[in-house]
């Protein structure tokens, strides 16, 4: 049965906001459905007779290559939309730009190339600036060159939508550049210098930008309230449960071939003899390793072979968007080796010192195997974000890892904040079946047979 898309209660105000305001900001925390809200609103506007396509989506690499294409692909309601990802070599980018599509996705770093290529012609009816904080450095005379190039064409699009979960990571002064693309400075000042002079000053000791008075913290949000909607998780969802977001990745062609071969061999071995839970779970490990991105070619080998980096890219995107300390749970030694190589600031959960440093905010990325994050360890003081880089079949270990900084411990420690749980899943692999098993929908054997029926 094909799952149908249905707006969640939290998405109704998001869609209404987009429908009613041609140029707007949607500041909603990660996992609340910003992407599908935009797709739903644009689709509805098209049905009502307004031409909103083609749409240009700007964003980080993972967002434009994976998030937007997968949301369109996964929901029948959006399957009529053609998506073209503008990335790669110049020839590949040109081919993607020339393709007949409804949604074009592109990284901010290619903005200058796009403007130079268009040469005055701008076909996009809508622009979506995903993770719009990338525009915070825009200035009329100086500032970021990429955003400056976009200035020439921004108002040739009838609709403009800024999306972000963290629009003011350094303070309210981050908002001016983003808002300019909505109203040309009407609300916050026609230049950054005027905006800064009115509401901010530089601390002579720390050299940091600070509001002139507490009034600024009321006046700036009030000034943009008609075009900017802020949506917080705590206002819509039950904080007694983690907010679960499945981040889906697609295996590259070579990795897909390797994975499919491993899976066929596993099923051949399992079907050749009566299935046992322990045997089935053990034989699936090679497939789960491949889904995570690395395999051990030979039995007993300590050296892994990396076959894709898609999960590392997804983890990088989560770290960038949450801008908070992250506890990342891994299933294989190769996971931690690869994560440590990509993120030099990563630390292992390997003893009391690591626990203390995490809880004191000294660690940005803490790696833990579920077995090392079991009973008795308190990690709630260090953060409220958990990422499962790879999964295993053990439901108890899964639940215990979540509980180390879960909703109950957050409340017991006096923190009024949601717990965000991200699971990075390789589509079309055992990752998805294991996730279903951990949700209590299936047993191990049922989950394996579910994959066999594909």
Structure, described:
With 454 residues, the protein is α/β, with parallel strands linked by helices. The protein folds into 2 domains: 11-234, Rossmann fold (3-Layer(aba) Sandwich), CATH 3.40.50.10810; 243-452, P-loop containing nucleotide triphosphate hydrolases (Rossmann fold). The chain contains 19 helices and 17 strands. The protein has a 7-stranded parallel β-sheet with strand order 3-4-2-5-6-1-9, sandwiched between helices. Helix 4 links the parallel strand 3 (83-86) and strand 4 (103-107). The protein starts with 10 loop residues before the first helix and ends with a helix. The model has no long low-confidence stretch (mean pLDDT 87).
Please give the radius of gyration in angstroms. Answer: 23 Å
Q: What is the residue-averaged pLDDT?
A: 87
In terms of structural class, how would the helical and strand content be classed? alpha/beta
User: How do the strands line up in the largest sheet?
Assistant: 3-4-2-5-6-1-9
How many β-strand stretches? 17
CATH architecture of the largest domain: 3-Layer(aba) Sandwich
Number of domains: 2
Strand composition percent: 15-25%
Cα distance spanning the termini: 13 Å
Instruction: Please describe the biggest sheet, giving its number of strands, its sense, and whether it closes into a barrel.
Output: 7 strands, parallel
Low-confidence stretches: none
Number of helices: 19
Q: Might you state the CATH topology name of the largest domain?
A: Rossmann fold
- Assign the CATH superfamily of the largest domain: Tandem AAA-ATPase domain
What would the principal axes of the Cα set say about the shape? globular
Helix content estimate: 40-55%
> For this structure, what is the CATH class of the largest domain?
Alpha Beta
Oligomerization state: single chain
